[in-house]
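Course assignment 3, question 2. Fill in each field.
Student: A.L.
Task: Predict the tertiary structure for the chain below.
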Amino acid sequence: MRVHITAMGRIRSGPERTLIDDYAKRFDRTGRPLSLGPLFEAEVDPRKAAGPEAEADALRKAVPDGALICALDERGKPRSSRDLAGMLSRWRDDGRSDVAFVIGGADGLHPEFRDGADECLSFGRMVFPHMLVRVMLAEQLYRAASILAGTPYHRD
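Answer field:
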């Protein structure tokens, strides 16, 4: 199952980019034997989408056809790392070819987009910049693959 991070904004070179690339590489390496991955990233230029509705349309276009959509939003359901691993495993076993984790811009996701997603995930009630959310998501995807692979990376 291919995994996509679809997000408003671009991350240029710097510490966030380095971390995302590192966790993506780890996810691909760990997930491949589990039929998870590769991990793709789609960055939507916010200058081409003014306003929440336009952002939602641009994000929809960046998501692969037929992909399960998991919106990241503070109003979503908080999950544990093991829960995320279980979700990935279940989606893969249900025959999903693609899952897209979608991160909105500065004002978050448009309510219709968020409400229309297959799943809505929260990293807690705090609000984080999209760059940090991408880093945290990439790490959690790697952690989920590690849990499913039974490696010692994740400790309970």
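Instructor remarks: Residues 74 and 127 are 7 Å apart (CA to CA). The beta strands are 2-8, 39-44, 68-78, 98-103, 119-122.
Grade: pending
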